[in-house]
Amino acid sequence: MLAAITDTNTDVLDSETRRFGWLLHCVGCILVLLCGSLGYTLIYERAEGSIAELAASIQELKLSVQNAPTIRRTHEQLTQRLDALRQGMAGLQQRVPLETDAGKFLKDITIIAEHETLEISNFQPDKPVIREGFTEMEVTLTGQGDFESICTFFDRLNKSSRLTKVKNLNISASSMAEKLPMSATLIIYFGLRGSDQAKSEEVQRG
Question: By residue range, what is the domain housing residue 19?
Fold first, then answer.
């Protein structure tokens, strides 16, 4: 009787032990799978991100290499334009005096007029007007001469050492007269300066 009870308890313990061992095995497998999946996910995502960044960097390098000739050409063109602007600015500064020098301007145009047989009868400078970066002054000029002398006079005036703009020109045509009366409004420039200096002067005037 005692032996039978002992055999029964042993069978029950063996069954429960096997069940418990099986459960532990299943739990272990599940943990291994979870840890493996988690580790794979983390490693894969990091690797995938690094690969994407590397691919983007490679693509940028490829584009840079492909665009290098265009970049060089653009740089050369911009450098040439900058040099041209600097040369133009230097030439402009040479043609724009610091002071009005209306007397010298009158002397210069008188010499040109005599050379082109144009008679100057009136030279009337107006008040200077301060602009941003420079100062300008209108000069009213009247005289007479034939059509050719008038044209050559203004052509030489345009090529003179001082920057001058012809604002308007009126010529009174007459078939009976050998010399044509003319009147012109010229603009001369002086006091060329930087924009910062011009702004400070405007503030002081305000």
Answer: 1-95
With beta carbons less than 8 A apart as the criterion, state whether 126 and 138 touch.
Answer: yes
pLDDT reported for residue 41: 52
Per-residue pLDDT of 7-46, as tens digits, reads 444 454 456 666 656 656 555 555 555 555 544 454 555 6
Facing residues of 122 across strands? 142
139 and 123 Cβ atoms separated by less than 8 Å? yes
106 and 54: one domain?
no
Cα-based distances in Å from 135 to 50, 129, 186, 189? 62, 6, 14, 6
Q: CA neighbours within 13 Å on the CB side: how many for 33?
A: 6
- With beta carbons less than 8 A apart as the criterion, state whether 150 and 180 touch: yes
Number of domains into which the chain is organized: 2
DSSP string, 61-77: HHHHHHHHHHHHHHHHH
Contact 179, 144 (CB under 8 A): yes
Same-domain status, 117 and 85? no
**54 to each of 15, 29, 49, 58, 62, how far by Cα in Å?**
57, 36, 9, 6, 12
